[in-house]
Design a protein that fits this description.
15 strands; binds 3-phosphoglyceric acid; single chain; alpha/beta; Rossmann fold; six-stranded parallel beta sheet; 2 domains; 40% helix
């Protein structure tokens, strides 16, 4: 099996000068729930390359992105992102707290070449939350209201390419569309370095997006890509409960209250199918305001990290791997006492000697805290998390498929 690289058009394949350009980026970044500040700006930095090039080519550039999900503490206005992009690019980035309404459309119409405007968080538009086929999304108000104002669409959000939402898959159906520089760099790097037949491949999966992670594991197993999956964080708790382990009153209540127990049958099914999923032997828990280590079978405190024995056990497995893909923190890394698991896993993955691919915001942040020498040994740091894993598992990502259709329709022609 090889990675399926869609035949999409890139910036160099289309004349994008003196045009009105709509660019979909992924500015989605961790936000400090107390101060509302952007905690890590790697994704934003990454996209400035594409934006700068479009401005240098005298285009009028309108940028859109999501941030968080409705209901989450990181579901915030993009006004802070506009300030950040202005700082990083050294030019004024205009902002409007509207996406498709008359105010936004008027500003877009009046935007001059060489100017850049950031729209509000795309997910304030209810249509953006619904996933559907590109053909359906092209008919949404979202796409119908905005598309007529533009000459070309640039998709730079590789990290959101696994979502089939209007801002990602709808515009390519009705506008000539190309992949931006971030998307291009990710696809080219991954196609060059990732060999699914170079085995064993070990995945280390954690983080808060448990439902996404289960889908990813299902796909990795179905496509025969993963040899071992080392689970951490919330995901590992779901698998432990699926194995029949009781994780203590406080953690069980937490899983219940957040609705995670509904995912247990899916985890159990994977285990029954013989999926090579490993779970932690122990955890770093919070008890009497201190970190202590407790075996997974005798947890009494609040689970906040994987434990030391688990770190060692996972290290042994990683030593056998040719390729190690890491995504999602192993614990609550915002609290320094519970950063150890994620930090050690990152460090030991690199020391294991396999080719390492770091994915997602938290691992980028951890990579930055490693010694220069270790950091240099990381095989590839991707700005993407879920999209990266689905891409590596051989899945076709909806937004890339939409770009492929667009390239055929508007740029390369039906060949
Ligand atoms: C990500 O961080 O993986 C992307 O920005 C997609 O975000 P989502 O999982 O909320 O769609």
């Amino acid at each position: 099996m090889s990675l399926s690289i869609p035949k999409i058009a890139l910036i160099d394949d289309y004349d994008i000068t003196n045009k009105k350009v709509l660019v979909r980026v992924d500015f989605n970044s961790p936000i400090d729930p107390k101060t509302g500040e952007i905690l890590d700006d790697h994704r934003i930095r990454g996209h400035t390359k594409t934006l700068k090039e479009l401005i240098d080519k005298n285009n009028a550039v309108v940028v859109m992105s999501h941030q968080g999900r409705p209901g989450g503490s990181d579901f915030v206005s993009l006004s802070i992102h506009a300030k950040k992009v202005s700082e990083l690019m050294g030019i004024e980035v205009q902002f409007i707290d509207d996406v498709i309404g008359p105010a936004a459309r008027e500003r877009i119409k009046n935007l001059k070449n060489g100017e850049i405007l950031l729209l509000e968080n795309t997910r304030i538009v209810s249509e953006e939350i619904i996933e559907a086929t590109p053909e359906k999304q092209a008919k949404t108000f979202f796409v119908q209201k905005l598309a007529p104002l533009f000459d070309v669409f640039v998709l730079d959000a590789f990290s959101t390419a696994h979502r089939s939402q209007p801002s990602l898959v709808g515009f390519p159906m009705v506008l000539p569309s190309v992949g931006g520089r971030v998307l291009e760099a990710e696809i080219k790097a991954l196609a060059r370095i990732f060999r699914p037949d170079e085995k064993p491949i070990v995945f280390v999966l954690g983080g808060a997006k448990v439902e996404d992670s289960l889908k990813i594991i299902e796909t990795l197993i179905r496509n025969g890509v993963a040899d071992r999956i080392l689970t951490t964080g919330l995901l590992s708790m779901i698998f432990l409960v699926a194995k029949g382990i009781y994780l203590g009153k406080e953690n069980m209540r937490f899983l219940n209250e957040k609705g995670y127990t509904a995912l247990i049958p899916r985890a159990r099914r994977l285990l029954l199918m013989g999926a090579p999923v490993e779970t932690p032997y122990d955890f770093g828990v919070l008890k009497n305001d201190k970190r202590i280590e407790e075996p997974a079978t005798k947890v009494t405190g609040k689970i906040m990290d994987i434990g030391e024995k688990t770190i060692n056990m996972y290290h042994e497995i990683m030593k056998e791997a040719k390729v190690i893909v890491l995504r999602g923190p192993a614990g609550v890394i915002e609290d320094p006492r519970f950063k150890k698991g994620t930090f050690e896993i990152a460090k030991r993955a690199i020391e294991s000697g396999g080719f390492t691919i770091f994915g997602g915001g938290h691992f980028i942040a951890i990579a930055n805290e490693l010694d220069e020498g270790l950091r240099k040994k990381i095989g590839h740091i991707s700005l993407a998390g879920g999209a990266l894993l689905l891409f590596l598992s051989g899945e076709r990502l909806p937004a890339l498929e939409a770009l492929e259709i667009s390239a055929k329709k508007f740029i390369f022609g039906e060949k």
